[in-house]
Automatic annotation (TrEMBL):
Keyword annotations from UniProtKB, A to Z: Kinase, Transferase
Domain of life: Eukaryota
GO molecular function: kinase activity; protein kinase regulator activity
Gene3D superfamilies hit by this protein: 2.20.25.20, protein kinase ck2 holoenzyme, chain C, domain 1 (1.10.1820.10)
Record-linked InterPro entries: Casein_kin_II_reg-sub_N (IPR016149), Casein_kinase_II_beta-like (IPR035991), Casein_kinase_II_reg-sub (IPR000704)
Family membership noted in the UniProt record: Belongs to the casein kinase 2 subunit beta family.
Thylakoid found in the keyword field: no
Protein name, per record: Casein kinase II subunit beta
GO cellular component: cytoplasm; protein kinase CK2 complex
Oligomeric and partner information: Tetramer of two alpha and two beta subunits.
Amino acid sequence: MSRRDNFRALYFDPSSQNWLVEIDDMYLQSAVSYYGLNSIVPNYSRAAGIIKGRRVDTSEMSERQIKTLAESCRLLYGLLHQRYIVTEDGIRKLENKYRRKVYGVCPRVACKGRPLIPMGLTIEPRLGKVRRWCPQCHDIYDGGVDLDGAYFGSDLPIMFHKMNDIPIKFRPFSSFLKKYIDENGNEVPEIKQRLYRWGEYPAIK
């Protein structure tokens, strides 16, 4: 097990470790990678030292302080992951997981098993868990793992598909505004509107 794998094993839940790509050591050692994060992450200096492979003496720290430091390590690594995953190397590693359907597939029948892409709803930490986005129907699903959405960021799906030249099936905006009518002339309930839009029910009108 590499030092990077060992770090993920120590600081992240087993069910979420495979969601994170392996950050290159050179990236972790570069001071540029950490720019601006010292104002966001508590215990920044110690957390950065641990991530870079330095030994930090915790013998005189209380259990609460050690727990807080571990949380800082997770946060800092996650924010570095947000930056690394949109680099050329990061996108390549994410593509490998995408091809292997690590993040699952869209449950909609019309999407025919299209692999999902992880994403956050914001780049700010502690505002929501990671989600999964379908490039076929554009729906967003729960991630089902205990990872902050900021570790992936909100722009990742579009950047990933653009850099890998993977087509995204965009729907015309008018399809979101159209109201469907059933055979009795009644407007279809809102709960079924999306099913009509994506072809899972035949639209009557």
